[in-house]
Amino acid sequence: METTQELKLDPNQVVPLYHQIYLILREKILEGHYDTHPLPGELVLAEQFNVSRVTMRRALQDLVKEGLVARGRGKGTFVKPRVEDPGTGQYQTLSASAMRLQASGDSSDLQLITSKRIIPSADVATLLHLPSDAVVEKLIRVRQLNKQPIAHLTSYIPEDLSGRLCRRRLREFPILMLLEEAGVKVTKARQTISARLADSAVAFALGVPVGAPLLSITRVAYDEKGRPVQLLRGLYRPDRYDYRIELSRKEVKGQSSWQHVNEVEFAFEKHQSALDSL
């Protein structure tokens, strides 16, 4: 059952109510909330969001247009199956710079929001190479700098590994660091960087409007045997978080192309004075 905070809309925002609803439902669909059952009926949703059926219908139509759901008269609204290939993308060696992608500043700037054991959605189970009935620990934390929110971090850890984490240090240190302290040798990761729009829960945590653009990072970390040990889904405020990478121009087989010089890194330098003035 959704909480009041999750379904709270802001009528004063420039973003229309139907689009706010669309963003919230889209996020829930992508996180697997409706994998095994239909969405609530149009009237029920309209009551939950405290909007008219016309507004609710417009939000559902946008989900249909995007190909996320299918609607049938008398049948309800169902999530359309999504095919995701976890084998795409490139492996990237984890280094001190890559660790900073998750550390994101001083270790004391973490706020633990949620820690619970769940049956993961199908896409989470697939990325972690787990059976559909496996249990994982889901942790939601907010990274802060100078008491200002920067990142909303959701991690999924296999149950047998999560039990080895030092619980009191979850509010202080990156999870990969805690896994390594527990004897897990993390050697590489597969990472995807894109953009997302803030739903109401994330917007509340990061102090941004619903629908605000965010930098999105999805990363699966692997141990030395190739087993996935953590799935991280991070959403970052672009006004406080930079993605930087140094490239060099090199010639390969007669053709010039860009190649990495340094590892990826997030930096805060140019935002520091602005943050200090907040």
TrEMBL record:
Q: Which InterPro entries match?
A: Bact_HTH_transcr_reg, Chorismate_lyase_/UTRA_dom_sf, Tscrpt_reg_HTH_GntR, UTRA, WH-like_DNA-bd_sf, WH_DNA-bd_sf
The residue ranges of the HTH gntR-type domain are: 15-82
Keywords assigned by UniProt?
DNA-binding, Transcription, Transcription regulation
**Which branch of life, at top level?**
Bacteria
Q: Where is the signal peptide?
A: none
According to the UniProt entry, the coiled-coil residues are none
Listed Pfam families: GntR (PF00392), UTRA (PF07702)
In terms of PANTHER family, this protein maps to: MANNOSYL-D-GLYCERATE TRANSPORT/METABOLISM SYSTEM REPRESSOR MNGR-RELATED, MANNOSYL-D-GLYCERATE TRANSPORT_METABOLISM SYSTEM REPRESSOR MNGR-RELATED
Q: What is this protein called?
A: GntR family transcriptional regulator
What organism is this sequence from?
Answer: Limnobacter litoralis
